[in-house]
């Protein structure tokens, strides 16, 4: 759901909205709280003073449960001088609305101008559901007690380095049932090390169950001449819900191990683990979570939640496990605590998120202030014939690579290419490296 800001003010009053005149209960089409929060009109409300308290409150009725209907209540100043009470008692009042009133609890932030006026900023649910809204904000309380601003961010993809494109393509297309969203070939290494610490020719293939706008996908990077990569203990697996994938694996005799009732473990070429739930959930994206290891769960939660603004959905201190995400309907990040050091070896991956491009410099500055590691400062990445995107590459306390990309340009870049699957097949057919190494009885290099 998208959250839309609305305002409450002390020290000034609100003009009675034309929309309220037309609709007694404020159910006009495309109702927005921000549209009814207007500046004062002394002609309409001559008794309002700068010391008065005037509120425009948007509340949602719990009963009867009519989806998308809101009741708009205009509350003028009732008592002279009430504004001198300050905003803290009033904020406490709204946060502690009695359950018997049938009102939802509201959340408010406040800002005070130099002249003493205070503005409350609250959040309400919008009737429009969007996965990546461009204007919404979501404030919650972080684990350290301070307010965290969840800007419109989205989980995009996880990056794997692969050595055998033929078997890899077979696994993702034929076993998991994913589609090739786009394929690109590059003559030299990526400025943001997307393909790892390699400077030679490489390719990138995006695969998923649907477009990256509303699906979490996988990025497969292939470095020509490298046949395998040593695995570490940093990546534990990707979990997805697809009875079709389970059926495909059994039909193709792809190795499956039932680790729990209805949950099967399998491996992609290269040793990357996947967990397949033998069910189909009522959501568009079957990919549920990516699981990474951490050496200190609390330290990692401080980083991912308090610095990067992720919401903590689940936390189990005993099992040293936590589940985080930017939205209910997005792929989640699961952190699993382990004893010892997190080893990334050579097969280390990278998780990517999008955010508004204008936030990238601020994100970089935040990491500098917090003395956190920045692997690649803000840089522009060019893709021939496609959009240029800006990225910042970070590393969490355990060295997990995190890419934040500007959302606006990435939406253009990530559009599905109907020729993607053919481009991958053509590239694999033109790649004669396996034949060359076999002919000369030499193994490919290890990453």
TrEMBL record:
Question: Major location, coarse class?
Answer: mitochondrion
- What keywords is this UniProt entry annotated with? Mitochondrion, Phosphoprotein, Repeat
Where do the coiled-coil regions begin and end? none
Q: Which cellular compartments is it found in?
A: Mitochondrion
- Keyword Amino-acid biosynthesis tagged: no
Entries under InterPro entries matching the protein: GLOD4 (IPR043193), GLOD4_C (IPR043194), GLOD4_dom (IPR059155), Glyas_Bleomycin-R_OHBP_Dase (IPR029068), Glyas_Fos-R_dOase_dom (IPR004360), VOC_core (IPR037523)
Instruction: Enumerate the residue ranges of region (Disordered).
Output: 119-146
Recorded GO cellular component terms are: mitochondrion
Residues of the VOC domain: 154-279, 286-407
Q: How does it assemble?
A: Interacts with NUDT9.
What family name appears in the similarity comment? Belongs to the glyoxalase I family.
Name-wise, this protein is Glyoxalase domain-containing protein 4
Query: Organism source for this protein?
Result: Microcebus murinus
Gene symbol of the encoding locus? GLOD4
